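Researcher: Here's the sequence for the chain we discussed earlier.
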Amino acid sequence: VAVDDDDGVVASLASTTSRSQDSGVPTDISDNKRTCKSCQIEFPRASLASISPCVCGGVQEETSSGGIWNRDKEFFTNFLSKKKPIVFRGAAKDMPATKLWTDEYLRREAKGAKVIVETRRIEDRRLSSSGWVFFGMFLAQYEKKNLFAVTSIPKALQKDVYHPRVFDCGGYTAPVYKLWMGTGDVVSVLHTDRFENMNCVVQGGRKTFLLWAYDETKDIIMGHRDWEKDHLDIDSFNVDMYTTHRFKHIPHRRVVMEQGDCLYIPQHWFHQVLTNGRTIAITTWTTHPTSNFLSDRDLCLIQDEHKETKAYPISKIEHESAHPLAIELLDMMMEGKTISLKEFIHNLKRTHEDLPRMQGLFSQLDWNKDGVLNGLDSEPILPYVLKEDGTLKQVTVREYANEKDVGKFFFAGAAHTLNKLVLLPKQLKLKLVHPNDEL
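Model: Thanks. This is the structure I predict for it:
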């Protein structure tokens, strides 16, 4: 694999920063919790990090030993719904990936997996610089050739990665999990994601995140002449005067991440990532509907039947968009089947204590109030899809029938409540079946 030589740019970064002898990471950021040392890091003069003013204390921090792995109404209320970033220091320190993922372990567990590899340390989306290789081949070469993996998590490693259950409040689409691994200095373009983002550093060096609030800066950044749909198409370390003029008035928040730390980046927030040293990070991407559809926030307080386990490996979790019960129910309705209250409760296998709640949910789903669920009740249950402009549109019966990717669907009201009931591991594989069908 041919690797582009970016040594000149990376050397420029190194020459303007005080670095430790071993890792190549700035030495003046060892204590970033209550000081502004992250804003004191020097970057090349012609970089966005130097031009855009750095906000001191711009991101709230919380010392955590695992809170993001549990349902958390406070996170939903104070951060996710308000689109506010937060750093969870030490949240991933007990994740198996943090303890186990040496190169030797990764080679032994997943050397035959295929991963996507980038061959440029300074990201440039104008150039094609990625391809598939076997993970074992990547591990043998990435330090010498400065390769960088940006890929789905190999199946053999999913047992070592936890799902951040703080995203479970308020409804979400099926999460996407990504592995980011490399060594040396790696720099992304300034970009935006249409997902909520939880980024956890599970191995090695440090990541520096530059964050620009979407609502505060979108007109200036997206109005840039070189803005391309979701990223700024410029040289990250050779910023021109036009860009300098636009960015010198819009401050950024700077977060330095170390092993075991996790950062929540709100949907659409602009960010640039600078990685130093051998680093492995895991991101979880998911999407929440607009605030009008977050009417069931108390669902995150549902009694957890698995109190002894606070964190679930992604290998054991299926999410509501994989097999939503609302999909099963809609399909039955459109096939002409009828479901009574007794059949509904029986197939959900709820406990006696749940009966009043299940009766209330059935009543909400029974749109015409005839005491059964059938095709006449299907219209209010039809899902929504997220449009390019970020708004939601309810699909028609025909659009629903033709859409093969159910992961695109959002559900509102009672249909969404129904999906949330099956997030607990013992209930994930249940299907709502007709009593005449074979169980």
